[in-house]
Amino acid sequence: MRRLRKKAGFSLSETMLALLIVALLSMSIATGVAFGARQYRRAMARSEARILCSSLAGIIQEELRNTTGVQTDGVDLEFFQSTHYQSGTELSSLVVIVEEDGEEKEQDEGYVAVKTGDEYFLLLGEAAYSGANDLKAKLDSVKCNTYEKEIDDGSKTEVYLSSFSVSLVIKARGAGEVRSDFDVIPLNEIKISAGT
Predict the structure, then answer these.
(1) How many beta carbons lie within 10 A of that of residue 82, not counting itself?
(2) pLDDT above 80 for 22
(3) 170, 136 in Cβ contact below 8 A?
(4) Where is 51: in which H helix or E strand?
(5) Residue 161, domain extent
(6) For a designed S-S bond to 81, which of 16, 47, 68, 139 qualifies (C-beta 3.0 to 4.6 A apart)?
């Protein structure tokens, strides 16, 4: 009778243990890759929000720096004389809008625009806000800082604009918000006109 030779190889338990180790390593690698991808998307969203915030801040600064007239409610800017979006003597206002059902409506979050009369002029096109990150802008506040100036013999004072203080927030889905607080000093001497 012939004896069977013992062949070298792995037992069933050794193979199962090796498969278990490979499965655990694969799960940890997949988790790490998913975490990395999530962090990458979050970083890209914050980066796009910073770029949008910087771009809008620059345009708002230019608009307010070149204005020749303002109307306030005492502290907050209500209207200003726009140099780029003006028709005639109409005053403009900074607003945030969204487009719903083909028409523009003022909202708390959306696209920053200049409103002159019944027309809205986006400071940046809708493409600047679009994409996977669903960016939304919010104008927290536009304040007018003033000083008093004596006129004639000092018996009377008038209120003039010294600067604007603007607070702008950009929100990105899943990445929080980016805030920019900045001051704008107008190029022109502007007498404050109180709202009615």
Answers:
(1) 23
(2) yes
(3) yes
(4) helix 12-65
(5) 28-77+133-194
(6) 68
Q: Output the DSSP codes for 90-148.
A: --EEEEEEEEETTEEEE-SSBEEEEEETTEEEESS-GGGT-STT--EEEEEEEEEEEEE
Whole-angstrom distance, CA of residue 94 vs CA of residue 113: 6
pLDDT digits (tens, 9 = 90+) for 126-181: 888 877 778 999 999 999 999 888 877 777 888 899 999 999 999 988 888 999 99
Within a domain: 187 = yes
Number of folded domains that form the chain: 1
Three-state SS at 160: strand
145 is a domain residue: yes
Taking the whole predicted model, whether its pTM rises above 0.70 is answered as yes
